[in-house]
UniProtKB/TrEMBL annotation:
Residues 2-114 form the C-glycoside deglycosidase beta subunit domain. The keyword Lyase applies. The lineage of its organism: Bacteria, Bacillati, Bacillota, Bacilli, Lactobacillales. This is C-deglycosylation enzyme beta subunit. Keywords: Carbohydrate metabolism, Lyase. It holds the Pfam family CGDB. GO terms for molecular function: lyase activity. It comes from Streptococcus henryi. Belongs to the C-glycoside deglycosidase beta subunit family.
């Protein structure tokens, strides 16, 4: 139902730190109608051109300041992912994405307090890195 929220259009870009490309990032909106703590994010997976990104390379931030690995997020209850604010996802990858077009797939799975099964959303986009 909320699969269009899974991968925010035009959000994929390389991450530059101190003038060096250290990876890439993208954004997702929650696939639910209200906020949840980061601890209720079951899984985030990224594929680029059909190749799955290692889970250990992914970090997330609810506000763009404090970043957590997926394992750390299981205990993060003080940061909420708000309904209308995108969750920022970074992938550590030296050199980031090469220039040109890529097929990027994002999977997001969350839990809620009163729905007994996880909410699973997947969306793919063609992105162009300049």
């Amino acid at each position: 139902m909320f699969d269009n929220n899974v991968f925010k259009k035009d959000s994929c870009k390389n991450t530059v730190v101190d003038g060096k490309v250290v990876g890439f990032e993208l954004e997702t909106y929650i696939t639910y109608y209200r906020a949840i703590p980061l601890s209720m994010v079951n899984e985030i997976a990224v594929k680029v051109d059909g190749v799955e990104v290692p889970r250990e390379a992914i970090t997330c931030s609810a506000e763009g300041k404090d970043w957590f690995t997926l394992d750390e997020m299981t205990t993060v209850t003080t940061y909420k992912w708000e309904y209308d604010v995108p969750l920022k996802i970074r992938v550590a990858q030296e050199g980031g994405l090469s220039k040109g077009e890529h097929d990027v797939e994002l999977t997001v799975e969350t839990r809620t307090a009163y729905i007994p099964i996880p909410i699973h959303g997947v969306n793919s986009r063609k992105v162009t890195i300049a």
